[in-house]
Specification:
heterodimer, A: alpha/beta, TIM Barrel, eight-stranded parallel barrel, 12 helices, B: alpha/beta, four-stranded antiparallel sheet, 44% helix, binds pyridoxal-5'-phosphate
């Protein structure tokens, strides 16, 4: 069984939902990423989404754009992403890692070469924001042949016909983009998210994650009540951006802040489940 | 029975395929949120491009609002000075708003209106597409937001003011290299956020399907007219065509109706900036590699890791790291020759045309002029050459004065 499958099965058995933090590799400094990944697991993260910086992040809002610019100041490349994952795997062989980025880096590397290196480093799945399933035949077979899950996005505008198509090719989990907009937007509507998730569930059996616009414990808990996983990106990256000292305390300060945010989300998400368990008992 | 030859002949009119591919190029590489909007746009475009009333409206607007057909002008004095082929200029600079860009914005604004969208957005580099978008928005009573790199806002100040006079909001883009590519990113972000009521008017033959096809179709009026005009004036097809290539819309507009005429040599001219060898240029077809950016697969200026690199050209309208996917394909199959002209050569051509013919060309078009004049010199006086004069240079006089150390 893959790390992703075991992760979701175990959570299901415990009636808990996955908390998935997103961080950009190398932001704000290359030394921060691996210790931060371990700390996030300690703080209650179940899966980690690791960004690969791209010069033209068309689907990202200002917060993650700035993170990419900071990472690119250190010339962070796919090699660095893979090296960080391999480093992380020395101490943690359980927590699934999803790489998130834009297609051009993978085009230039070559699909098969990319997938082989990602799998060897210990990556479990890949989200490529600008790769819709219509263009993805070769990409999907390269990922799958190396045991990587192609994770696809579904948006509020995705028609029922396309939900079916995406369901046919996706693996690992499906990522529902909670709103029309870029990452970091702040107008998530929980009721409409729940409605769309119900529609998606009619055609897709994979776990459903929800991301974009989840910034505090309260929304994390609300969204986790109707989904299988909650993705938190800009809220974390924004906190990290406050610590650009590049000195010895930087990593500690970031870990403290991010841990505080994730702890709060974890507790709120689990409390919500416990309430339900006591209610039904 | 088709002969071997016709079997091998490429049906240029049948490109792209139904998913927007020109060979391996083109396609649709955007975030999921936009897929539905692109399907709607494709369906609407397919429907209206066959609709007689819509086409009649488009043709009437091109005639009475834009001022088409634009003349094909025999530049006799220039031809004599060069001493080679007869040089003909396709005068897109005489269009309303001063460039070819308006052919496309009229088409897309009519489509936006037919689709019931009353907010339009656009990206702009030189400001010509922004002005052309703001112009049609004013005429149709639509809200218009134009994204423009902060650096280009400085380079093209007169056009910024024109857009504002026309009622558009001009949003400076300060991310990345602060030029056209970043303006495109920002327009895409706006579109993703406001997809329900917003029509994105892309200014060139790039972007996700159906844009490269749709913009080509709207711009092909240039080549159709030029073909008729040159046949009337010289009784034969031209020996060569020359156009500058930023994203490639004026070039494909001129080239497309001639692609099947094998005797016509076709040249696309990119911006060589300080020189291809310096790395400071904007010539993805001449010196780039295939990749994926802004919704399509095409030639790009990128580093070995796949990051898009900064471009340089004196001309804001050519300062773009990608190029339309149809050009990428035409390069690979060898139908069109792509070459590049430096800032210096373009500036010299700017002065030459201004002084010899009394026509002030846009800096973008000056690249086509520079190459066209070089090419004409290698040809004989019985031969003819059409250069696409894609726009007029009024917008560039501040830039040129500054380069030459003159205070206006
Ligand atoms: C006059 C003129 N010519 C050419 C271009 C380049 O665009 P394209 O290559 O799409 O024709 C521009 C772009 O702003 C322009 O203003």
């Amino acid at each position: 069984m893959s790390r992703l499958q075991s992760c979701f099965e175990q959570l299901k058995a415990e009636q808990r939902k996955a908390l998935i933090p997103y961080v950009m590799t190398g932001d704000p400094h290359p030394d921060v990423t691996v210790p931060l990944m371990h700390a996030m697991v300690k703080a209650g993260a179940n899966i980690i989404e690791l960004g690969a910086p791209f010069s033209d992040p068309m689907a990202d809002g200002p917060v993650i754009q700035a993170a990419a610019e900071r990472a690119l100041e250190f010339d962070i490349s796919l090699d660095d992403v893979f090296n960080n994952v391999a480093d992380f795997r020395k101490l943690d062989d359980v927590t699934p890692i999803i790489m998130m980025g834009y297609l051009n880096l993978i085009e230039v590397a070559g699909y098969d070469n990319f997938a082989a290196r990602a799998a060897a480093a210990g990556v479990d799945g890949v989200i490529t924001v600008d790769m819709p399933p219509e263009e993805a035949d070769d990409y999907i077979s390269a990922l799958k042949s190396h045991g990587l899950a192609p994770v696809f996005l579904i948006a509020p505008t995705t028609t029922s016909e396309r939900i079916g198509k995406i369901g046919n090719v996706a693996d690992g989990f499906v990522y529902y983009v909670s709103l029309k907009g870029v990452t970091g937007a702040a107008n998530l509507d929980v009721d409409s998210v729940a409605e769309k998730l119900a529609e998606i569930r009619q055609q897709i059996d994979l776990p459903l994650g929800v991301g974009f616009g989840i910034s505090n414990a309260e929304t994390a808990a609300q969204v986790s009540a109707c989904s299988d996983a909650v993705v938190v990106g800009s809220a974390i990256v924004k906190r990290m951006a406050a610590h650009q000292t590049h000195d010895a305390t930087q990593t500690e300060d970031i870990i403290r802040d991010v841990t505080e945010l994730l702890n709060g989300m974890r507790q709120a998400m689990d409390a919500d489940i416990e309430n339900k368990i006591t209610k039904t008992a | 029975m088709p002969t071997d030859k016709t079997q091998q002949a490429i049906d240029y009119a049948a490109m792209p395929d139904d998913r927007g591919h020109f060979g391996i190029y083109g396609g649709r590489f955007v975030s999921e949120t936009l897929m539905q909007a692109l399907d709607e746009l494709r369906d609407a475009y397919e429907k209206f491009s066959k609709d007689k009333e819509f086409q009649a409206q488009f043709d009437a607007d091109l005639a009475y609002y834009v001022g088409r057909p634009s003349p094909l002008y025999h530049a006799e004095r220039l031809s004599n000075e060069v001493g080679g082929a007869q040089i003909f200029l396709k005068r897109e600079d005489l269009n309303h708003t001063g460039a070819h860009k308006i052919n496309n914005t009229i088409g897309q604004a009519l489509l936006a209106r037919a689709m019931g969208k009353n907010r339009v957005i656009a990206e702009t580099g030189a400001g010509q597409h922004g002005v052309a978008s703001a112009t049609v928005a004013a005429r149709f009573g639509m809200e218009c937001v134009v994204y423009m790199g902060a650096e280009d806002i400085v380079r093209q100040a007169p056009n910024v003011y024109r857009m504002k006079l026309l009622g558009a909001e001009v949003v400076p883009v300060t991310s990345g290299s602060k030029t056209l590519k970043d303006a495109l990113n920002e327009a895409m972000r706006d579109w993703v956020t406001n997809v329900d009521n917003t029509f994105y008017i892309i200014g060139t033959v790039a972007g996700p399907h159906p844009y490269p096809q749709m913009v080509r179709d709207f711009q092909s009026v240039i080549g159709r007219e030029a073909r008729t005009q040159i046949l009337e004036m010289t009784g034969k097809l031209p020996d060569a065509l020359v156009a500058c290539v930023g994203g490639g819309s004026n070039a494909i507009g001129l080239f497309h109706p001639f692609l099947e005429d094998e005797s016509v040599e076709i040249y696309g001219v990119e911006a060589a900036g300080d020189g291809i060898e310096t790395g400071h240029h904007a010539a993805p077809l001449c010196a780039g590699e295939p990749g994926v950016l802004h919704g399509n697969r095409t030639y790009l200026m990128e580093d070995r890791a796949g990051q898009i690199i900064e471009t340089h050209s004196v001309s804001a309208g050519l300062d773009y790291p990608g190029v339309g996917p149809e050009h990428a394909w035409l390069k690979d199959i060898g139908r069109v020759n792509y070459t590049a002209i430096t800032d210096k050569e373009a500036l010299a051509a700017f002065h030459q045309l201004t002084r010899v013919e009394g026509i002030i060309p846009a800096l973008e078009s000056s690249h086509a002029m520079a190459y066209g004049v070089k090419l004409a010199a290698t040809m004989s006086p019985e031969q003819s050459l059409i250069i696409n004069l894609s726009g007029r240079g009024d917008k560039d006089i501040n830039t040129i004065a500054k380069i030459e150390g003159i205070e206006l």
